[in-house]
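Lab notebook, bench 4. Still working through the backlog of constructs that have no structural model yet. Next entry is a single chain of 274 residues. Request: give me the structure tokens for it.
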Amino acid sequence: MAAGLHVDEETVRHRLQHMNDVRFLRGWQLMLNPALLGREAAIVELRVGGAESKPDVISRLKLLEGVMLIDDFYGKELAVLTLYENPSTLERQVRLFASLCGGPIPVSWKLVFPPCDLIPTRTDWGIMQALRRDGRGRLSDVARALRLSTRTVKRRMTGLVDGNAFYLDPILDLGNVGGVRCRFWITSEASWKQAVDKTILSGLQRIISTHTAPQEYSLVVAHLSNLSEVQERLLWMRQLRGVREVRSTIEVEHIHVQEWVEGEIEKRLSAFAT
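Model written out:
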């Protein structure tokens, strides 16, 4: 992390500790690479028929197969990160989401994750299950829960990280530091997309996460000071050469869905028992 930010390690430790102390960084959620489950990932943009129906829609979405994340935005918008087996299953999921929302036909686009060809062992699945709710849990605690040595857990963790088996999603509480969590959807001309992505990632501060599709779509989530800064950044992106469209939304809540993924992990652990 220090190398990527071009700072020393002590600075990173100090800033992370400060974020913990002020309760801005509440923890980390471990997110599996969809390839481990034999699936691909897509973001589905939704719009509910009325803002008052949102809580019920979110509750129903949490129960559906494949749903890993739900982002609730101000107004009638929602976004769902869903895992799917093939294009036809994604199409069925999108139709189901639309029927629950009672809004217009959803827009979906594929997310690209790093390649992962690992075949996890029972120990690997156990480690990922133990870290699902606390992605920064101590290896000694994981080892104790799985009745393994800390050295074994560390060695298997290194293999999982090097094999792109998972990533960590920060659980943030903006209420403790102020500002807004803004999501920018950027559509670029295919020939300019790489240059646009590079310019935005180097020019936008306080980036929380990014996802870029191989063709024209990109998604950037950033922590901005206020709505004025959101508007300023929006106008800047729209003026970049090669950009076709930029939209922004303000997140109300970033909701991790536990049940379906944990059920998939349990199935794989059970398979080893048989």
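Notes after review: The mean pLDDT is 89. The CA atoms of residues 4 and 12 lie 11 Å apart. Flag for follow-up if needed.
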